[in-house]
Amino acid sequence: MTCPETQSPRAPCEPGDILPTGRKAWSLGDAFRIAGLIAASGGIILVHYLTPAVPQYAIVHDIHRQILYIPIILAAFWFGWRGGLICATAIIATYFPHVHHGWGGAFFDANLNRTLEFAMYLAVGGITGYLCDRLRKANAQLSGKSRQLGEAMRDLTNKTREVFEAEEQLRQADRLKALGQLTTGLAHEIRNPLASIRGAAEILADSETEPGQRAEFSHVLIEETERLDGVLKNFLDYARTQKNGGGAAELKPVVDRLLILLDTKMRSATIRMDVDLPPALPSLAISEDLLQQVLMNILLNAVQAMADGVEQRIEAGDAAGKGKVFIAVADTGPGVAPDLVGRIFEPFFTTKPAGTGLGLSIVRKIVASHRGRVYVDAQYARGTRVVIELPKA
User: Global pTM?
Assistant: First the structure.
């Protein structure tokens, strides 16, 4: 506890409180110290008085005078420069009659060195006390700073805990928001096929329905059932936790396999595919199955969004300074509107009449789980260019 610099009469410093000078307020221990100093100084001077003033005891008298430095230094250490000077002055005043009688008043002739020793008593008491006061004050300031740092540390710990709690609440809110979006999107995607299935079933249940219509609506039932199955499959793919299972995928075999799988679709849409892969491309830190799923979703999304007769291009290379490889899928289609670029990776967002809006969301989830990223190149002006960055194996 630090005693304030201005104390009212009704609120005095308690014993042991720290004064602004750095030393503690008076206490019972100080009284014992003063009593000890008086007893020690008085005892030394008394012994000095009782020692015969003869030449053979001259060295004993010198020892007595040297020993008197001890209570002066202790007084300065305990009570500061004031205590040191008061103790030195009291010793000189008590010692003076013996000196005057023994020296016969000759202070500045043969006894000059002894006279100067009185000045040394005062100098040692004052200087030692001043230095001790400085040291105590510095210690008091350091103690105050230490307490302030301790309080600041506790406040920082509390604030950090509050930030972590708020962050966790935000995460929970984001999860709930995402769950709400997924639920809404899934309900919307399921409602449409169910409405078509119900309508077709009602028509088939009508006994007056002609055989040709029955075949047509049976085909509708099959199509809508397959569509509903596709929606649920895509949703499960998105909801499934994508873990980084390791692996080292080579890009070229995956691209070659995709070109074979998509050959029919591209031929029917008269889409020309151009592939530009460097010969010594590093392996990617992802399994070939997941890499194929990522590229398949991007290519199918582009094929479904493009008009006939456009071009597609797959290129790859080293992402300089990132320790990753980039894969870019570009097309010469209509492109993505600037206000929609930030939304195309959201679950269930789609601009296609028959799309589920989960394909690119699945892509982003797979890529992110492998410490990569996927984005639309905003600088590409000829159509759309989707860039994937994945770490090297």
Answer: 0.46
